[in-house]
Amino acid sequence: MKKILFHACVVSLVIVFVLPQLSFSKENQLGHVTHCSGDIQIKRAKQNVWQRLALNMPVCCGDIIKTSEKSTVEIALADRGSFKIHPNTQVALNTIISPVERANSFLLFFGRLWIKIHKYTLRLKGYEIQTPTGFAGLRGTELGIASYEDGSTLVRVNSGRVIVDNEVDRKTLSSNEGAALSFQEKEIKIEHGFQPEWERTQRASRQRLFSDGEKYGTTVRSEIDRRKDHLKDLIEKANQLSEEKDRYLSLAREAGARGDDLEYESCMSEANNVNERLKKLNRQIAFYGRRLECHFGLFYHYGYLARHPEYSKEFMGKEFILKELDNIEMIHAEFNAMIEEGLKMTMEDMEDLMDEMKEKVKGFRK
After folding, report:
1. How far apart are CA 356 and CA 348, in angstroms?
2. pLDDT of 27-61, one tens digit each?
3. Which of 229, 321, 340 is CA-nearest to residue 282?
4. Does residue 361 sit within a domain?
5. For the chain, is the Cβ count within 10 Å smaller at the N or the C terminus?
6. Based on the domain organization, do 226 and 91 belong to the same domain?
7. Which residues are within 8 A (CB) of 325 and not within 5 positions of it... i.e. 6 or more apart?
8. Which CATH number characterizes residue 115's domain?
9. Does 193 reside within a domain?
């Protein structure tokens, strides 16, 4: 029986697992750069080297983009949407997507995005934006969203609708509405005529972080531990379902060998029911993997600030952050292995069922 082995691997400060996507094919390309100014860096999927982002450059599944102070980049999506990355932002594109879901996911570790998604676009593929404190599902929308260094999130809808969810509360925002999310406040309160002060809130967020880095670092670390344990539970459930599915397939083959078509169909029906549950788990593993990845990205940013020659001077609690970094890197390595094996296992189980069904069809044709 297939069992998950939790193994360590070498990781850099930010590792984002994606399904194999190595070329700039049309399938993997999300869009291209239409405007850029200032120092903008991009790290390609499965690579550890940052390179300078330039005009007309393609952006693809698994890429990570970061902007510095006074730098911005605008990207036209291949499916008619577009988004703008504001200064001091780091975002990962289309990461940890389950093969059985149709979605594009942007992980906003910190910083600010403006994004416009047409209704036509959503007929092709859904979009979501993840932050450490919540996620937004887009429905033909133009919105601004910011994720700040203290973990807070601001969402402002210019037009259309956005579903905002923090896994405790869920609200739908419409045009000219917004909401603020945080680690502490679980109720999402809709504000009509919401006009956030983006830059002022960003400065206040950094002041809060620098005044008590251990407090915010502990919060993010606890979120990482909680979500990692949840993913382990999901993958253990997948293991159990995999065993159950194998049992039904074995019984189906035995029934087929003795010519008991009724029993064969009954066992295959049960195997198919288990397969549907595996599909659901596959999507959940990918979704909660994206949630966890946002927390890794934020904690690594804390590490960057704690090591910075200037920022570290006013960063209270930086010793805690630096002490925890090695532990976070080890957990991240385990996480990447866990996600990869979990998605691979559930997909192999689905493929096993399809192979069995194909064999049965061949038998009918003989």
Report:
1. 12
2. 578 899 999 999 999 999 878 899 999 999 999 98
3. 340
4. yes
5. C
6. no
7. 299, 300, 303
8. 2.60.120.1440
9. yes
180 and 217 both lie in a single domain: no
Residue-by-residue DSSP string for 51-62: EE--TT-EEETT
Could you tell me the residue range of the domain that residue 142 belongs to? 29-197
Evaluate whether 303 touches 322 at the Cβ level (below 8 Å).
Answer: yes
> Whole-structure pTM over 0.90, yes or no?
no
Which residue is associated with the tokens 């044709």?
Answer: 365
- Residue 11 counted as domain residue: no
CA distance 88 to 69: 5
Burial class (CB in 10 A: 0-12, 13-18, 19+), 345: buried
Burial class (CB in 10 A: 0-12, 13-18, 19+), 343: buried
Q: Are residues 39 and 172 in the same domain?
A: yes
Pull the structure tokens for residue 70. Answer: 């006074």
Q: Amino acid identity, residue 200?
A: R
Residues 180 and 152: beta-carbon distance below 8 Å: yes
Domain boundary among 171, 197, 223: 197
C-alpha to C-alpha distance for 281 and 326, rounded to whole angstroms: 30
CB contact set of 78 (below 8 Å; sequence gap of 6+): 26, 29, 30, 31
Tens of pLDDT, residues 74-111:
999 887 889 999 999 999 998 877 777 777 899 999 99
- Token pair 């190595």: residue: 22
Residue with tokens 């990355």: 85
Q: What's the total number of domains in the chain?
A: 2
